[in-house]
Specification:
121 residues; alpha+beta; 7-stranded antiparallel sheet; Alpha-D-Glucose-1,6-Bisphosphate, Chain A, domain 4; 7 strands; 3 helices; globular
Length: 121
Amino acid sequence: MEFFRTLEADVDAEGLQRVLTVPALPDASDAIDTLIHDGGADAGVVYCLWGEFRVHREAINGGVRFSLPECPNGLAWTLTTGHPPDPKAVVLHLTISRQEHDPDFVESLEAFADSWQVPAA
């Protein structure tokens, strides 16, 4: 399954990579409550609406990708900018490794996608 959101932010790809680090996740999403372990910009452990998870971050073309490697649903999301059809928009793309899921979990994924904002660069 996949979910998309367009976020309001005046930032380029380098700005996304600078401000969206693992330690910054609780400031970027209300669905991520706490940084439990700070492993630097690219790794850590967070407590989010589904519980405690190890999180990885990588810089990608146009922004950043986050993943929860131990998530049973393979949750991953990207935030990118500079791409068509609107190169000035920041696009959140959230995926899980399932084609279908129970409605309560899908609702939580929608809430997670809706919770994002890009911190000021």
